[in-house]
Amino acid sequence: MNYILTIAKKEFAGYFKSLSAYMVLIGFLVISGWFFANPLFLSNQSDLRGFFGIAPMIFLIFIPATTMGLVSKENNTGTIELLTTMPVKSYQIVLGKYISAIGLIAIGMLFTMIYPITILHVGTKVDIGAMALGYLGLFLLAGVFTAIGTFTSCLTKNQIVAFIVSFFICFFFYIIDAVLFFIPSGLGVIFQYMSVNYHLSTISKGVVDSRNIIYFASMIFLFLKLSSTALEMKKR
C-alpha cells in the first residue's frame, strides 16, 4: 500500500507541475458549465439534465487526455525500466497511476458542485437523491474510462497513440447500445450489457441495480488487470 500511495502522490503532484492538469480542469469546467448555464439563462430551465447529458461525452475526450501519459511517457523516456526493477509490483504501479488520474477527475467533478448550489440559490427544488445517483454514475463511468486509458498507456511509447486508442475503446463501449438494431436479437442482450451508457442511464433514472455496480467494478478490474499484465510482459 505504501508503494501505491507513493506513486499516486508523485503522479498527482506531477499533473500540477505542468499545464496539463489546469488545461484539463479548465476545459472540462468551461464546456460543462456552458451546457449547464445555457438552459438556465436562455430558457429559464434550472436543472442538471444538460450537465449529466453532456458529461459522458466530455469524458470521452478529457479522460484519455488525462491518462495518455501515465505509462507511455515513462516508456518513452526509459524510466519504466528503472521503475520495474525496483521492489514494487506491476499492479502497485498501475494502481498508483490509476488513483492519481481518478483523483484529478474527481477534483473536476467536485468543482461542478457549484451547479446544484446555483440551482438551490435561485430557489429551485433539487432532488438530492437523483443528483447523488447522477454523480455516482458519472464517477463510475470515469472509473471505467480511466482504467481503459491506463491500459492503453501501458501499450505504447507514444502518448498520441495512447490517446487515440483509448478514445476509440471508450467510444465503442459508450456507443454500442445505439447500434443494437444491427445486431441479431440473440446477441442484443449481451451487447446491451456491455454498454456503459446502458448502465449509466439506469443509475441516472434512480435505479441502483447490483448488476450495474458489478458491471462497472468488473470493467475497472479487467482493464487494470490488463494494464498490470502489459507491464509484467515489459518487465520480462
Task: Write a brief caption for the model.
The chain is an all-alpha fold and 236 residues long. It has 12 helices and no strands. α3 packs antiparallel against α9.
Question: How would you explain this protein's 3D organization?
Answer:
With 236 residues, this protein is mainly alpha-helical. 80% of the residues lie in helices and 0% in strands. The chain has 12 helices and no strands. It has helices at residues 2-15, 20-42, 49-67, 72-77, 79-85, 90-111, 114-121, 128-155, 159-175, 185-194, 196-204, 210-235. Helix 3 runs antiparallel to helix 9 and helix 6 (90-111) crosses helix 12 (210-235). It is globular.
Topology:
Blueprint: H1 2-15, H2 20-42, H3 49-67, H4 72-77, H5 79-85, H6 90-111, H7 114-121, H8 128-155, H9 159-175, H10 185-194, H11 196-204, H12 210-235
What attributes characterize this protein structure?
globular, 12 helices, mainly alpha
Distance between the termini: 23 Å
Q: What is the string of SSEs from the N terminus onward? A: HHHHHHHHHHHH
Beta-strand percent range: under 5%
Shape verdict = globular
| Low-pLDDT runs | none
Rg measurement, Å: 19 Å
Question: Largest sheet, described in full?
Answer: none
Structural class, from helix and strand content?
mainly alpha
- Average predicted confidence as pLDDT: 84
- Count of DSSP H/I helices: 12
Helix fraction by DSSP (H/I, runs of at least 4):
over 70%
Tell me how many strands there are. 0
